[in-house]
């Protein structure tokens, strides 16, 4: 059984690894905000994108079988949102 702190550490490592695959998370969230804003014709800020992605993840969690990766993704999205809300550190 993992502790909450261990889950956070593991997710931080996952975010770093995904950066190698998907590029800089700040740029990704900013680009996605721009695309969503254009599509929805309403302003979406970069810090809102990981919240939106969290809602997608929660929807998937409620509709399908339990997948532990969903929890890791949810932690990761919350961390991205918090970092962006604090100025994108």
Per-chain topology:
Layout: H1 4-22, H2 25-40, H3 49-63, H4 68-85
Structure characterization notes:
- By secondary structure, the chain is mainly α.
- Helix content is 76%, strand content 0%.
- The protein contains 4 helices and no strands.
- It is globular and about 45 Å long.
Residue share in β-strands: under 5%
Rounded mean pLDDT is 92
Characterize the biggest β-sheet.
none
Q: How many beta-strand runs?
A: 0
Summarize the structure in short.
This protein is mainly α and 89 residues long. 76% of the residues lie in helices and 0% in strands.
Structural features:
89 residues; mainly alpha; 76% helix; single chain; 4 helices
